[in-house]
Every structure is written in C-alpha cells, then in structure tokens.
Amino acid sequence: MKISICIPVYNFDVRELVLTLQKEVETSRVEAEIILIDDASKSSFKEINSELKNTVKEFVFLEKNIGRSQIRNLFLHFSTGEYLLFLDCDGKIVDQDFLQKYIHFIQENPNTQIIYGGRKVLPSASDENHLLRWKFAVERENLSTSLRREKPYLSFQTNNFIIKREILEKIIFNPQFQKYGYEDLLFAMDLKSAGVKIDHIDDPILNNDLEANNVYLEKVEESVESLAEMLTDKILDSKLSEVKLVRIYHKVGVAPFNTFLGLLFIIAEPFIRKKLLKGNCSLRYLDLYKLGLLIRKMK
C-alpha cells in the first residue's frame, strides 16, 4: 500500500514537518511519497521551502492562489498513492509512529475509505493576544476520539486526514468556493450524502501556528462570507443543515426576526468585537458574532 503525503503550502516554513515525515518514511520503510504544492506564497517562504526540492517527490509552485478546496483536488494530478494523506502546512508531528498508526488501521480495516486523525494544541496559549484561537481549538476542535465518533461528519476537519484515492476521484472538494471557511464541513457532508464512512482514530498533529486574535477574527469573518455564499444554494443549504450556526440561523435569522436582530447586532457589534479581540472571553461571544455576521450577509 502506497501513501501520498499531500501538503498544501501557504506562507509557512514546512521544512521541519517534511523532514520529520521523511525520517519516519525511511526508518519505518513506509512506501510513501511526499508532495508539496505552494499556493502562491510570498517569495521569502518559497525561497526557504525550496530547500526541500530534492527531498520530496514533487514540489509544485503555483503563480496564482487557488484556495483551500481546489489545491487539495490538484494533488490527484501529482500523486500516485492508493491513499492520500492530507496535512496542513502549519502542523507538527508529535508521534514518531504517526504514519504507522494510519497504516495499521487500514491494514486492520481493509475497507477503510477515509480516516480523520485529530488535532491538538499546546497546553496553554502563548499569550493573551493568541488566546481566542487557542480557546476555540481546545473547546471546539480538539475533541477526543470517542466524542468525534459520535458525530463523525461534523467533527471532521481537513488538517490531518487520509482518504482512499478512488473516493477523492469521485467526491472532490467543491471548487466553487475559494474563500476560507466551511469547505471541510461541506466536503464531509458530500461524503455523508454519498454514504462514505469517516473513521476516527487517535493520531493527532499539533497545530503549530495559532493566529493572533485580530487575524483569527478576520478569518472568522471570511468564513461567514463563504458560508453565506454556500447557503444561497438550496442543495448546499440542505447539506449544511446540521451545522450549529446554520440551524440557529434558520430558526432566528429569517423574517420577521432578521430585521430586529440585524439592528441589535449593529448596536452590539463594537462591544462583541472588543471582547473577542481581548481573547479572554466566552466563546458564546464568538457564536453571537458569527450569527450577527451571517444575518447581515444573508439579507
């Protein structure tokens, strides 16, 4: 069984990640290839990562940014493995048997189609300026394997998963959306609609690059824009109906409540943003912020 390790690269030094993976490939004699595709990073990062050209099987540099969905689909053109392992470029391997855990599960379960390994962050945030992203990771993303298995599609993320090639050839990431946000959940719901099972195991990677509060809030705003665009399509709206934010929006974000809530959000928005930028606040403020933004975008 051959694995293609696929890492989309964007403005990050991936040398440590790649060399750690390469070490396990060599020491464990795993049949694997490493493929990097740079999504139009800054020249400084291209120069740094170019050191890996002779280490990996393929290193492709794109002249124009194509986004998180299309770049993952693009790996099908450069990979040859029966399974494709996708890793975010800011991840850090924390287990020397990282690849072996995936391989062992597949060997024990030969009908495996897709596996999510999980994620983790450091025990504490580096400082208060990075606390919001850290809190979201700890409370909403870094779920135990048992909790993830209760909701296998809603808890799926694209930072660390392996998928059988023939599945990705049939169910690609929706190329319609280039902006950050919800492309992982949309992909998971496409898998669910097709009856593809997502397995969950305990094989996390460390999220090694938590954004500052203001940067993360910008990404949240972009993700809500992306979600609003998805919800204008009735088919996609239906597929995303299990997402908590979408469920709440359909209950309270439509007429006649949307006008009142929209006005209320205008008044409350500066206060909520101030709380979020400080970082040390309940994630309920983030939930309210997302809902207010979605109501505004959908009007």
Following the backbone from N to C, one meets helices and strands in this order, namely EHEHEHEEHEEHHEHHEEHHHHH
Strand order of the largest sheet: 3-2-1-4-8-6-9
Termini separation (Å)?
A: 50 Å
Summarize model confidence as the mean pLDDT.
94
List keywords for this structure.
alpha/beta, 10 strands, seven-stranded mixed sheet, 13 helices, three-stranded mixed sheet, 49% helix, single chain, globular, 299 residues
Task: Summarize the entry for a quick read.
This protein is α/β, with parallel strands linked by helices.
Structure in words:
The chain has 299 residues and is an alpha/beta fold. Helix content is 49%, strand content 14%. The chain has helices at 15-28, 43-49, 67-74, 98-108, 131-141, 145-150, 165-170, 183-193, 213-231, 234-239, 244-252, 257-278, 283-298, and strands at 3-9, 32-38, 58-61, 83-87, 91-92, 114-116, 119-120, 160-164, 198-200, 205-207. The strands form two sheets. It has a seven-stranded mixed β-sheet with strand order 3-2-1-4-8-6-9, with helices on both faces. Helix 9 crosses helix 13 and helix 12 (257-278) packs across helix 13. The chain is globular.
